[in-house]
Amino acid sequence: MMTDTEIMDHAVVDLRNELGSHLGQVARLSNYLLDSQFSRAGFNITREQWSLLRLLWAEDGQSQQKLADRLMKNRASITSLIDNLEKQNLVVRVPNQKDKRSKLIYLTQQGRELKEPLADVFEATSQYCFRSISEENLETCMEVLLQVVRNIKSNNS
């Protein structure tokens, strides 16, 4: 027979397993939903490409390495993302004057013009996903998830 402490320990482990499973499911489903919403609105953009574009809309002319670090992507993944955006004429690679070995990634005019329409699709999708969830619950969720991120990052330091 298990003690009360052992029962609680099992419950905590089960809760963590369930939470991990749900986080993965939310990530996959939200990526799929956003991809399909972009497509339905006539944009050939993925959620990953959207994330990279958002970084450039906030600060144009970032190095490929900085973008990779901020998106937590490896070199091959970030290269592929940039290649695809470049093929769509949304970004260009420009030699870095301070470091000839690296290139800076800049938005094209077409890439800049996508900011508002893609933001509108993202906002509508976000509103749909978070409907009927209170602001207080969203804030608590954000605090918890940020602490999980800090915990994971402190382990990798």
TrEMBL record:
InterPro entries: HTH_MarR-typ, MarR/SlyA-like, WH-like_DNA-bd_sf, WH_DNA-bd_sf. This is MarR family transcriptional regulator. It comes from the Bacteria. Residues 38-138 form the HTH marR-type domain. It comes from Persicobacter psychrovividus. The keyword Ligase does not apply. Keywords: DNA-binding, Plasmid, Transcription, Transcription regulation. Pfam families: MarR.
